[in-house]
Amino acid sequence: MYDVLHHPPALGKNLRILRRVRERSLSDVAQAVGISKALLSLIEQGKRRCSFELLYQLLQYYRYSLGQFISEAQHHNEVEGPYFQPSAPRQTPMHHLLLAGDRNHSSPTLLLLRPLSSSSDLEFLRLILPPRSSLPAKTFFRFDGQFRGYMLQGKLLIESSDASELVIHQGEEFAITPQHPFRFRNYTDSRCEALLIFPYPWL
Description:
single chain; Jelly Rolls; six-stranded antiparallel β-sheet
């Protein structure tokens, strides 16, 4: 498993290059996502870690998929040194990329099962939630369209911002078109795992 997510210098450098490609100032971006310019600068310099929620917010602001960003950042970090060129197709070896959580799966974890090389790739994700946890923890995801999945272990609750809920049990296949922002939640005392398939790079 490759893990650029927990390497602040590589992640920060790629965030800085993406900001410059989008022609945004530190002040513009910091104000848009609700953090200080100083904090964003420290993250881009690799001197502060970037939380999953903040990384998700930043990439939403840049209109860029987390899966694409991590695939590109990881590729350049390993092959050419930290560098980032948005939307450039890359041939990357088949390795799982960590998008959220940790290697031990002790916190809510999201793995990209196949690196992305273009904006038309299917996004295959493995979601692992420890007991009594959710992803994201404090916010909700947004997705326009339908995604599919298969419940590998346990029970998964898909909770919408309008308080509606859907429970998926082990062995069930599902297809969902979210009407509202949503999050994944494990309300049980056992770990749950699901395979998620999105029609294009989403997260």
